[in-house]
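Need tokens for this chain, all 367 residues.
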Amino acid sequence: MSIQDDHSRFKDIIKGRIKENFKKHIVNEEMIGKREKEFVKIPIPRIKIPKFMYGPKESGGVGQGDAKDGEPVSGKPGDGSRAGEAGSESADHAIEVEVSIDELAEMLGEELELPRIEPKSGAKINSKKHNYSGISTEGPQSLRHFKRTYKQAITREIISGNYVSGKTFAIPIKKDQRYRSQKIIKEPQARAVVIYMMDVSGSMGQEQKDIVRLESFWINAWLKKNYKGLETRFIIHDSKAKEVDEETFFKVSEAGGTLISAAYQKAYEIIQADYAADQWNTYLFHFSDGDNWSSDDTKLCLKIIEEKFIQRINLFCYGQVESKYGSGQFIKDLEAQCKHEEKIIRSQIKNKEDIPNSIKKFLGKGR
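Here are the structure tokens for all 367 residues:
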């Protein structure tokens, strides 16, 4: 077995360990804090690789001694049968392994049985990919194609009648030289945008924001797995809404009253300005504790959803995070008004342990 085989097997063991406790990793915000670009560091129990251990010299071989066949092994000192004394050395605990977010998204899909997402027709572009698969008679020496060059030299010798198999050496001349050249390949690529909206009013505490942060991370990982070049936009709101960057979205601490319609109007402005319905797959995720300023504003929210969002988006997902300060009324109004609309999905999230079920509810139909 080669070193590559051993390395591949070791990676499979690590993935197996991660999968064993995957739901626990989903709700571990410390793991996301260890994110580095496209990788996440995950703590797993230390894996010991089996190896042969040699005993002391002159201690006898295998099966030697005074005992007879079938006789139980007695607990002699040094045979490992009695408890050891307390030691001063530290024990092996856990190691951190780097796993790509792409691999985690794959595990998420397997764990939650998420289906592949089918991009809606028309929402595709042709992306350009450069590939050195062409051949040219000119180019730098670093791109010289040796096989093609010598093949051309042999062909020239055969045509001239000078080539004798096994005797003639074909020496390439300038016109025999062949070089690798770029080919531009057009590949169809689906375009998708995710707009995350979060209520940051006074009733949304740190615990609620942590839930939003975790769930948004895993949703993003899965959608990135399905779409190359996924775009993300972030909106925070209390009684007013504003677009922010990702770092601000997860770290912001605000207070004030709540007007949910402000977030929906801001999201619609973004969609209208930058994301044409026939060219983009659009996903909206809104997280709140369900406490809105007035029933009139709730009516305005429902009107925006029905008249402006439904025809332009793939999915509108509303996640209501439980808070002791929020009324939780919004999800009830959304349910009463839009329960038969397939593009609208609602999820109640009581705590971090509810995150996996919430993700499955949002993405489980592969829209």
